[in-house]
Write a structure and sequence with these properties.
Blueprint lengths: L1 H22 L21 H12 L9 H7 L6 H6 L13 H7 L16 H12 L6
């Protein structure tokens, strides 16, 4: 009986892991991550959201879409959801913003995961500038 329970448990774990790889689709918008370029200053949220949509799956059914907001109270599908959870973005303080730390690899988990398309230096700096400038919605 214990052997059967163990097999069922391992099967469920395997199924959930496989499902997460199938469901998680970065670049779901059909966009090209490398085509997103940030200015040196005055970064607008619509540029940030575009990066989220292409590189982080900021849409429902993706890595950090609306579904993750329902599960964890945080997602990258809208400004309100990005700003909903304390510490994800700390306005004017990128060093204390989890978003910046995980993107720059200074805090686990590194995002995007190594098996996904990576953000370039301009994109990382663009996110940092957006937070430094106050992480405005406009």
């Amino acid at each position: 009986m214990k052997h059967l329970i163990r097999i069922i448990f391992l099967s469920i774990i395997f199924f959930l892991c496989t499902l997460s790889f199938i469901v998680c689709k970065d670049e779901i918008s059909g966009g090209n991550l490398s085509s997103i370029v940030f200015p040196a200053s005055n970064v607008h949220y619509n540029q940030v959201q575009n990066l989220f949509n292409v590189g982080c799956g900021g849409q429902s059914g993706s890595c950090h879409g609306y579904d993750t907001f329902q599960q964890m109270g945080f997602s990258l599908d809208s400004y309100e959801h990005v700003m909903n959870k304390a510490g994800i973005v700390v306005r004017t303080d990128p060093s204390h913003s989890l978003l910046i730390n995980v993107v720059e690899g200074t805090s686990p988990p590194k995002m995007p995961p190594t098996n996904q398309p990576q953000l370039n230096d301009n994109q990382k700096k663009g996110l940092r500038v957006w937070v430094t400038e106050g992480a405005r919605a406009d």
